[in-house]
Amino acid sequence: MKIAISASGKNLSDLLDKRFGRCEFFQVYDTDTKEIKILQNKGNQASGGAGIAAANQIVDEDIQAIITGNLGPNAFDILSENSIKAYTCECLDIEEILSKYDKKELKEITVSGPKHQG
Question: The Dinitrogenase iron-molybdenum cofactor biosynthesis domain covers which part of the protein (predicted)?
């Protein structure tokens, strides 16, 4: 299973970035191989529709879960339509977030946040 985490950097010691569509990187953790793959977020530099671009990238990478701060309605809908679970977490380092995920201590995102206005 592949889990993407919206991240502020490329290392396990870097923090979660709560901005799904505008985070700089996704750290993708493979639960089978225990490997991390770093993806540059395609939504980061988008002039508009950052959440849509990021969500489509997650779908294209065949990821089954995302850990982030929050999701706007468009990103939430794309992920939901593709059966990708979303979880929220406070700004912790990626290693600690993965530990919380393994212990089932993260809260699932079941409704979208507000639409971004600007």
Answer: 15-102
- Tell me if 94 sits within 8 A of 16, measured CB to CB: yes
C-alpha angle 104-110-111 in degrees, rounded to nearest 5: 150
CB 73 within 8 A of CB 53: no
Are 50 and 44 a contacting pair, CB within 8 Å?
Answer: yes
Q: For residue 44, what are its two tokens? A: 């980061």
Phi, psi of 58 (to 5 degrees): -60, -45
pTM across the whole model: 0.93
Q: Which amino acid is at 81?
A: E
User: What CATH code is assigned to 2-108?
Assistant: 3.30.420.130
pLDDT in tens, 84-107: 999 999 999 999 999 999 999 999
Domain boundaries, the chain: 2-108
Q: How far is CA 68 from CA 86, 108, in A?
A: 8, 10
pLDDT value for 116 = 61
